[in-house]
Prior knowledge:
Layout: H1 2-29, E1 34-50, E2 53-68, H2 78-85, H3 99-127, E3 129-132, E4 140-143, H4 148-151, E5 153-156, E6 172-173, E7 180-184, E8 187-188, H5 192-202, E9 208-215, E10 221-228, E11 243-245, E12 249-254, H6 259-263, E13 270-274, E14 277-278, H7 281-290, E15 297-303, E16 306-312, E17 315-319, E18 323-326, H8 333-338, E19 342-346, H9 348-354, E20 361-365, E21 368-369, H10 372-381, E22 386-393, E23 405-412, E24 414-418, E25 421-424, E26 427-430, H11 437-460, H12 472-485, H13 487-505, H14 513-526, H15 532-565
Antiparallel strand pairs: 1-2, 3-26, 4-11, 5-6, 5-10, 7-8, 7-9, 9-10, 12-13, 12-25, 13-14, 13-15, 15-16, 17-24, 18-19, 20-21, 20-22, 22-23
Helix pairs in contact: 1-3, 1-12, 3-11, 3-13, 3-14, 11-13, 12-13
Amino acid sequence: xxxxxxxxxxxxxxxxxxxxxxxxxxxxxxxxxxxxxxxxxxxxxxxxxxxxxxxxxxxxxxxxxxxxxxxxxxxxxxxxxxxxxxxxxxxxxxxxxxxxxxxxxxxxxxxxxxxxxxxxxxxxxxxxxxxxxxxxxxxxxxxxxxxxxxxxxxxxxxxxxxxxxxxxxxxxxxxxxxxxxxxxxxxxxxxxxxxxxxxxxxxxxxxxxxxxxxxxxxxxxxxxxxxxxxxxxxxxxxxxxxxxxxxxxxxxxxxxxxxxxxxxxxxxxxxxxxxxxxxxxxxxxxxxxxxxxxxxxxxxxxxxxxxxxxxxxxxxxxxxxxxxxxxxxxxxxxxxxxxxxxxxxxxxxxxxxxxxxxxxxxxxxxxxxxxxxxxxxxxxxxxxxxxxxxxxxxxxxxxxxxxxxxxxxxxxxxxxxxxxxxxxxxxxxxxxxxxxxxxxxxxxxxxxxxxxxxxxxxxxxxxxxxxxxxxxxxxxxxxxxxxxxxxxxxxxxxxxxxxxxxxxxxxxxxxxxxxxxxxxxxxxxxxxxxxxxxxxxxxxxxxxxxxxxxxxxxxxxxxxxxxxxxx
Length: 567
């Protein structure tokens, strides 16, 4: 916890430092008197004065500032102005410099946030890191039944035909696992998140044209143009296409006594096709579970570059549908198998019918002490049966929301087919060649900028709910998770937040840099300063708005925390 807070404060300090550094360097370049360069807000903890400027650290790590002579967030009286910087020549006051110089000083802060993002993204491109395959490919995994992707028309690509001219009876219907989206409305797709962002931020109101590549079982690649309109699925808040990222089906282990081990599948094998169709981890599991009793599944597998073929008959086993259990604590592998299972996720249907809830700890099963190994074994051995479990239900918020309790519940076990393999995710080491380090930094920064602007537009158009906005608590949580993933992910998140700060600070709101640009622009048009009383009220309105916004996003954060700890 303490480490996470420290990492968040370090990231925040770096972002603030570069932002304020931009203002500072620009002010010095324009010969403006800078009284203080502070990271953190007052009171002042410590610092050093070099020349005319006090370089210091503030006690409150929630911001920073560059204090320039003549920059008045609220109008000062003549006596106050004389006391603060009366000894500074007026030509060095911020508000006495030409408007174009003030524009440079104000814009320099957001500009440095953009420069920082380019530097961080370029560093990532140079250093590289282990990433999921969906980070470097938009390939399609599981396609949900009845979703826009499952029902989308596909037309064979015809050179020279415009996107909007593809109409009439389609050549095929529905996206499939393994399809590779190449372009969306003429723009290349780099990874799966490009698809997800487009649907969430620009979907629900418009139709997209997606160029897909599909490889047949004989290796022939065909290109299709697909018309598709995302929509909200189920109880979700944002529209989607109804597809998941492709996750290569790599065997982590085969369970002894089950068909996969008997057929000779080894850890590291990649399952490419089942019954002639491309599969990933999710589609392979769904295929085996829905297989008819006694049916044979024909597998195409790649092992050390060699293609192998297996015929496997899935075995009927038990599985509790709608329940995910495991161990949330970090333990050694042998300790995990002997630990009491904790309910990590449960469907609404099972929660209502059986009474089990998320965060319940299973302490006994069929009258025996429950361990993760025993729970899995009994679940597998009892298809179409019932498991009697005893759960320890923890208190929530000291018993205010939920009291601690011990309950005995009955869980129905469904009969499904399985081959007995556990899958592992495929991680890919991705690093750009030296010639692409800086260009990649610009590309990723531009993409982050486009996503941020699209998010603002979606908020205004109400395509995205304001309840999705997060504040300091959410940012700190996400930063902590990124740090757990390693330096690569921490740099990526820091760069993205830096772009967000760049855009946010340019919003035309009082107190923000964008508000100052509006004030100086108005002054340039009128050729005289704003009325001090109006300026004071303008700044007060902006301050109240920012406070209200902070309270709102913090309320959202608290709501998420409560939602996370409640069943």
